[in-house]
Design goal:
By secondary structure, this protein is α/β, with parallel strands linked by helices. It contains 13 helices and 18 strands. It has helices at residues 2-35, 39-49, 58-73, 135-138, 171-178, 197-210, 257-268, 323-347, 368-377, 423-431, 451-455, 471-475, 488-507, and strands at 77-86, 90-101, 106-107, 110-112, 123-129, 149-151, 214-217, 252-255, 274-284, 290-298, 303-313, 353-360, 379-381, 388-391, 398-403, 411-415, 440-442, 461-466. The strands form three sheets. An eight-stranded mixed β-sheet has the order 1-10-12-11-15-18-16-17, with helices on both faces. The longest helix has 34 residues, at 2-35.
């Protein structure tokens, strides 16, 4: 009986020590993350000082150099810009103006698409509204578009905002996520041969042949002066991209919907408005077309050959300063590295597994930085795809990858990407942050960002549930994606929660559970 009592006492003492240690960890991490935060200063430097960070541009290159120096100053090791491939030319907008004339004058709200070439100074042209949905309807425009301003889109209704554009999740939203069923495998789609692609290819081949002065659209969303803009399109040149050297590109702009609609209404009523445009841009090649991710580490101890990764993409589009997409995520993940580095110095406790930060580039062009990193280190994949053919030994060494890329909103929980076995683990870890609202766990998948590159090759890859704020309808890829729309308290909370999750992952006896896979693990070669 005494032995049983003694054994019970030992077990209770052991688990009591673990609980106390976890509590102490989180208290210290909370203090550093919430009361001694540096996340907004990081975001200021990244967004306000270095500005928009288009992949391949000197601005991204300069921001990366700054981040490398900053990470080194915090004591991280193996900090480097790691090459992931060649991308092509960068692009920089130096000047832009657009004006409308007749029946009266107004200054147009519009932005050039990335990689649009310069015009020959301020040029004025006749406007043509290209109305065609078939090959037959395109015929009447042949020989009539050269030197014209071509408008491609229809009028789009603009609805007034009777509800606030920014929102936070309510309990019902989170409950629906928590109760979501196991996701079904997503069918693979061939976008190149999807509905409407054949006609679009024919349309852009005609535009490339005709060489109009400018092509204008109004995007499918945005109002009140908010304009959503990405990259220029290439027509008539198979498999060419806007960043490729020597490719032909027609100047392209996205116009505020209210101004776009007004011009089309004037045309429909028999008026002949005119536009003038001046684009001054330059192509640049800061590293001879070679592009990089940033990698930095905090070394582990007894399990140092195993890795916990966390990251975000640093590249952005060009009309704002890339604040919510994804200066927020990059700043938070840099802050996570700072928090953990400071925690280690204060506590003397070291991570068991190596902690590795990754700041990606090329995400906006298709997760290029993370996908190529995964191909280099973890798995050979099908040409042009993510499906792994052969796993590499390093793939087995990664416990998990954590990503942040959904704006400025604080963390409400985590997407487990259909991985049922991690749910009780995250439930225990996130319970410590219930008071900060970060305790929802969903089996659902989420996509469109860099964790997919890891999840696709069998590495547990996770994206956090974030408050939506006004990300999708106001700031994401828009001219309003600026530092002013970052919510400081939310970013401090996010950095604190992620720092704790990364730390707990590093200290586990076992790596994070993996989903079942039909890909054989790598076989060690015989000596």
């Amino acid at each position: 009986m005494k032995r049983k009592i003694l054994l019970c006492f030992v077990i209770c003492s052991y688990f009591g020590q673990i609980f106390t240690q976890k509590t102490d960890n989180n208290e210290t991490i909370r203090r550093i993350g919430l009361k001694e935060s540096n996340v907004m200063e990081i975001a200021f430097k990244l967004c306000e000082v270095y500005g928009p960070r288009l992949t391949g541009s000197a601005k991204l290159n300069n921001a990366q150099d700054w981040a490398v120096a900053e990470l080194k100053s915090w004591g991280l090791v193996n900090v480097a810009k790691e090459e992931w491939g060649t991308f092509g030319r960068g692009w920089q907008l130096e000047h832009f103006e657009m004006h409308a004339y007749s029946p009266d004058y107004w200054q147009v709200i519009a932005y050039p698409k990335a990689w649009s070439p310069s015009t020959n100074g301020l040029v004025t042209g006749e406007i043509i509204y290209l109305q065609a949905n078939s090959s037959q309807e395109l015929e009447k425009y042949k020989g009539n578009l050269k030197g014209k301003m071509v408008m491609l889109d229809t009028i789009r209704d603009v609805n007034e905002w009777f509800d606030a554009p920014a929102k936070r999740y309510i309990s019902d939203d989170l409950l629906q996520m928590a109760n979501a069923p196991l996701p079904s495998p997503r069918p693979r789609r061939n976008w190149a041969t999807g509905p409407g692609q054949s006609f679009n290819k024919e349309l852009w081949t005609l535009l490339d042949k005709e060489q109009p002065l400018c092509i204008i659209d109004r995007n499918f969303k945005g109002d009140l002066g908010t304009v959503f803009v990405t990259g220029a399109r290439v027509g008539g040149q198979e498999d060419k991209k806007a960043q490729d050297e020597g490719v032909r590109i027609i100047p392209q702009v996205t116009m505020a919907v209210e101004h776009y609609n007004r011009i089309l209404r004037l045309i429909s009523k028999g008026h002949s408005p005119k536009l003038s445009i001046n684009i001054k841009s330059r192509y640049e090649n800061p590293n001879n077309g070679i592009v990089h991710n940033i990698i930095a580490e905090i070394p582990g101890t007894d399990l140092k050959d195993e890795v916990v990764m966390f990251g975000a993409h640093m590249d952005s589009w060009h009309t704002g300063t890339g604040a919510t997409d994804n200066g927020a995520g990059s700043s938070v993940m840099m802050e996570v590295a700072r928090i953990l580095s400071k925690y280690i110095k204060e506590s003397g406790e070291k991570p068991r597994r190596t902690l590795r930060l990754a700041l990606w580039s090329g995400e906006e062009q298709g997760l290029l930085g993370s996908v190529n990193y995964v191909r280099k280190h973890f798995a050979e994949t099908e040409p042009g795809g993510w499906i792994p053919k052969v796993l590499k030994p390093e793939q087995q060494k990664v416990s998990a990858y954590y990503n942040l890329d959904n704006g400025t909103g604080k963390i409400r929980g985590i997407y487990t990407q259909g991985n049922e076995e991690v749910i009780p683990i995250f439930r225990e870890w996130l319970d410590a942050f219930k008071d900060l609202g970060a305790n929802t766990i969903t089996i659902e998948n989420t996509g469109g960002t860099d964790h997919q590159a890891f999840d696709g090759v069998g590495i547990p890859g996770f994206q956090f549930i974030q408050e939506p704020i006004a990300y999708s309808n106001r700031t994401h890829h828009s001219n309003m994606d600026n530092w002013d729309h970052l919510v400081a308290d939310d970013l401090m909370q996010a950095a604190t929660v992620i720092a704790s999750i990364v730390w707990q992952t590093s200290q586990k006896d076992k790596k994070m559970p993996r989903k079942p896979s039909n890909i054989d693990p790598p076989v060690k070669s015989k000596p």
